[in-house]
Amino acid sequence: MTRSKRLMMIGGAGLTLLLTTGCVGYHQVTDPNAARLYFSRSLTVEGSSGDLVMKDDLREMEVRLSEFEVKDLSREDYRKATANLRR
C-alpha cells in the first residue's frame, strides 16, 4: 500500500470517529434537498444511519438530516450570519 493511500485511510478513519462522536464549533448546515440553512454549535453524525443530528440554534429545535453539507464558520462569521437571520 502506498503512503498516500495509508494517509487517506487514516484521515478517513479519524474523520469518521470525529463525526460519530460529535463536533463542537460553529457550523452552517445546508439541506440540499430543501435548500434550507441551519446554524448549530453542536453536530453529531450517527454511525449506524449516517444521519446528521443537531440542534438548530435559530429555531431552537432538533433537526435530523440524511443528506447535508457542513461548512465550518469562525465565531465572528457565525454571529454575523445568525444576527442577520434573526432580524
Care to describe what's here?
This protein has a single domain, classed as SH3 type barrels, CATH 2.30.30. The chain has 87 residues and is α+β, with helices and mostly antiparallel strands. It is built from two helices and five strands; from the N terminus they run αβββββα. It is globular. It has a five-stranded antiparallel sheet with strand order 4-3-2-1-5. The model is unreliable at 3-21 (pLDDT under 50).
What are the SSEs and their pairings?
Elements: H1 3-21, E1 23-31, E2 36-45, E3 52-56, E4 61-65, E5 69-72, H2 75-86
Antiparallel strand pairs: 1-2, 1-5, 2-3, 3-4
Quick structural gist:
The protein is 36% helix and 38% strand. It has 87 residues and is an alpha+beta fold.
Sheet-strand content, in percent, reads 35-45%
CATH class identity: Mainly Beta
Q: Please tell me what the overall shape is.
A: globular
Number of helices: 2
What Rg do the Cα atoms give?
15 Å
Major β-sheet strand ordering: 4-3-2-1-5
Which structural class do the helices and strands define? alpha+beta
- Kindly report the average pLDDT value: 80
- Helix proportion range: 25-40%
Under the CATH scheme, which architecture would be assigned? Roll
**Spatial gap, N to C terminus:** 54 Å
**Biggest β-sheet strands, sense, barrel:** 5 strands, antiparallel
Number of domains: 1
